[in-house]
Amino acid sequence: MAFNQESHTLSGEDLRFVSAYVLERSGIVLGESKRYLVESRVSALARALNISSPAALIKRVRAGETALGKQLIDQMTTNETFFFRDVHPFEALREHVLPKVMDARRREKSIRVWSGACSTGQEAYSIALVMLEHFPELADWDVLIEGSDISAKVVAKANNGVYSQLEVERGLPPHMLADYFVEQPPMWRVSGKVRKLVRFETMNLLGQWPLRCKFDIIFLRYVLIYLDDNGKRRVLRQIENLLPPHGYLFLGSSESPMNLTDAFVPVLFGKAVCYQLRSGNTGT
Ligand SMILES: C[S@@+](CC[C@H](N)C(=O)[O-])C[C@H]1O[C@@H](n2cnc3c(N)ncnc32)[C@H](O)[C@@H]1O
Known about the structure:
It is built from 11 helices and 10 strands. The protein has helices at about 10-25, 35-50, 55-60, 65-75, 90-105, 120-135, 150-160, 165-170, 175-180, 190-195, 230-240; strands at about 110-115, 140-150, 160-165, 180-185, 185-190, 200, 215-220, 250, 265-270, 270-275. Strand 4 (about 180-185) and strand 5 form a beta hairpin. The chain is globular, with a radius of gyration of 20 Å. S-adenosylmethionine binds near residues 85, 205, 206 and 221.
């Protein structure tokens, strides 16, 4: 089917529909200022699915095609990520957070970490690399890093664990590339010892949370920035119930629970800020 290049722009009504549809189902805010971004992403999806125009795609979502609706939401996500993003949280993880969590969990010898909004997996794999590189004693512990994201596309890539040269050059120290990746020209695959520490699944932070345990460490970075205040509060309320008193929450450097909830207190480790439950708060 020929794609109609001229129908790239969306009517005001279609734009409002997409914004409301995506906000209601994912919490992602797409105001009028994001018009260009919305138009170009809906156009790209229509083209990829061989649908004649963005308007035709939206018409089908309006008519109740929920699978297409999910693809539309997926298309509206911003998946920027890279290995050891921001560096400082991973230094804090190595120097302070993991030693403290290991002290707290020494009897059970079990650690659970969650990378909520994991995108293509680099964050979860970076956590696994810190553990493998600096905590050899964890080899006989029960360790699991769970990664989840609303986008089925990025979760599939995370699951695959295969990255381009450009992707491994973003943040990954060269010796870690040599020690923990297998070259499959022109790509690199995470090796089995890294892969087996990490599990990925699709999960909408504003939907049902199928997570079955508390997490000693939660990375929830660079996702609250995309959500409206209601969505941010809903997510942080649920986090309260997933974090044990000894647990740590990492947010993105531009994100904070301040003005949203007083359930958490900031903890400074070097140049990284993370959060713990305010003392006496044991969730709801
Ligand atoms: C910018 S990436 C952050 C990736 C990683 N945490 C990092 O800091 O490098 C934001 C991710 O949040 C995901 N996301 C957005 N809304 C979400 C929601 N409602 N539920 C789960 N994930 C969501 C997007 O799909 C995207 O992959």
